[in-house]
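Narrative of activities, Objective 1.

The group set out to show that a structural description can be obtained from nothing but a protein's sequence at a throughput compatible with the screening campaign. Below is one input-output pair from the validation batch, recorded exactly as produced.
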Amino acid sequence: MKKLATFLFSVFFVCSLAGLTFAEELRIDGSTTVLPIAQKAAEVFMKKNPSVKVFVSGSGSGTGIKALMDGTTNIATSSREAKDKEVATAKEKNVTLTSHKVALDGIVPVVHPSMKINDITIEQLRDIYNGRIKRWKEFGGPDRPISVVSRDTSSGTYEVWEEKILKGDKVRPDALLVASNGQAVQTVAQNKYAIGYIGIGYIEKSVKVLNVDGKTASANSVRDGFWPIARPLFMYTNGKPSGVIATFIDFMLSKEGQKIVNEVKYVSIK
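Output recorded for this entry:
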């Protein structure tokens, strides 16, 4: 009986270890812009590494970086660089925010497909979003009010738009704030007189992309800096990554990982 009990304990112990190995987890949270990249990469990564379970969510760049500081995620995705304040707060928590550039993105202004406008300037975009231009007729459109769709302030996409388009101005107070690129697409697609902005990877037929200052958004124009509203996309870790975190970051930067970036309609860095 004693030998049987010892055997059963040994089997239980070995199975428990196997379960622990199988249950190795990696958590990724942050930017909704980077979300399609992270989701597809996680899917392929888990097929290559069946002993790892990857959980991916998109709560916004700022929220993802905070989650990394708090230890509730292993990798924070961000569509902007970490702010000085975030870096300082992280240090207070003994966290070192270490960036890994994994892709490039172009932010594109979008309108309803029925809108008879194809081009817009940086200045016109600024005046629409700060409230100086209120009606489409002011630059050749119909005599209807412009419904402005913007991202919420926790979004890295909003912060890049604020820097490159608003240039210090505040977004008009009646703008509709949405929490994700997907919501921006849906909102503009359902309103003939709306204008919004999204990451290049979210372009679909339900919205029309406007040229900016006569330039067209494309992988090449983003990569060579010709597109005026371009930015790098990041994955942040706490210091130099190790273990499964390092394995995932290395995969993301590999030829296969960069191929995934292109497959989900973003711009690879290589």
